[in-house]
């Protein structure tokens, strides 16, 4: 399968929790309210998407890699990546292999120059400072890194494992990966995806909180980075 699916929603959508097991509900009961909302909304959206695109009544139990990345034991089910920022929630499904997605609210960030100097390469920092909207450029670079790290099962503390060359839309990484990175400035949000090289098409959907349906979206102008 050479396509991936991206589904966007809001954290405060009235998700049905009926597809989550009693164990999942019990696990989330002890979380603080904000974390519980994020946790349940993400898994409820995942359960609904699996029901629509793969069949099944309830969300299968999740397993976790050594790095803490969740996955399904059933290899017939797709790889997935959940991300949220403020009230924005997104789910990435990919049958072709490991994938990672990130969404970031492009909010003003104090001292973003210092963060960029610390987290990005000299090439990236100089490119960022040359842009007409450097804060948007900051979120682009940050979001692309997050997506790649989520695909790899890494953490924000490993941002130096990937080096971007935004002028040529290419990147190198340690370890080297056969990955393509996609990004899109979506209104006030920046979105990024890390997909297996074989994926050539992205299907996009918006979750309709009233009907519970996934509404297909028209193709949008995503930009790609290729590995060197």
TrEMBL record:
MF GO annotations: transferase activity
InterPro entries linked to this entry: 4-PPantetheinyl_Trfase_dom (IPR008278), 4-PPantetheinyl_Trfase_dom_sf (IPR037143), P-Pant_transferase_sf (IPR050559)
Name of one Pfam family that matches: ACPS
Residue span(s) of domain 4'-phosphopantetheinyl transferase: 100-156
Record's keyword annotation contains Transferase: yes
Keyword entries, A-Z: Transferase
SUPFAM superfamilies, per database record: 4'-phosphopantetheinyl transferase
Family: Belongs to the P-Pant transferase superfamily. Gsp/Sfp/HetI/AcpT family.
Name used for this protein in its record: Phosphopantetheinyl transferase
Native organism: Rahnella variigena
């Amino acid at each position: 399968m050479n396509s991936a699916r991206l589904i966007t929603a809001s954290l405060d959508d009235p998700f049905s929790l009926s597809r989550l097991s009693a164990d999942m509900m019990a696990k989330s009961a002890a979380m603080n309210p904000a974390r519980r909302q994020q946790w349940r909304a993400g898994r409820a959206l995942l359960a609904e998407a699996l029901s629509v695109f793969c069949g099944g009544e309830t969300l299968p139990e999740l397993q976790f890699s050594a790095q803490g990345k969740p996955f399904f034991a059933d290899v017939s089910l797709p790889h997935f990546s959940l991300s949220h920022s403020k009230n924005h929630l997104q789910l990435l499904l990919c049958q072709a292999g490991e994938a990672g997605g990130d969404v970031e609210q492009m909010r003003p960030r104090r001292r973003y120059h210092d963060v960029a100097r610390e987290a990005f390469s000299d090439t990236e920092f100089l490119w960022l400072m040359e842009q007409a909207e450097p804060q948007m450029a900051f979120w682009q670079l940050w979001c692309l890194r997050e997506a790649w790290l989520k695909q790899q099962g890494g953490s924000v503390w490993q941002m130096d494992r990937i080096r971007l060359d935004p002028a040529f839309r290419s990147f190198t990484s340690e370890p080297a990966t056969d990955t393509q990175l996609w990004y899109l400035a979506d209104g006030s949000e920046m979105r990024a995806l890390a997909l297996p090289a074989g994926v050539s098409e992205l299907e996009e959907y918006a979750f309709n909180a009233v009907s519970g349906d996934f509404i297909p979206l028209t193709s949008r102008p995503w930009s790609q980075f290729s590995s060197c």
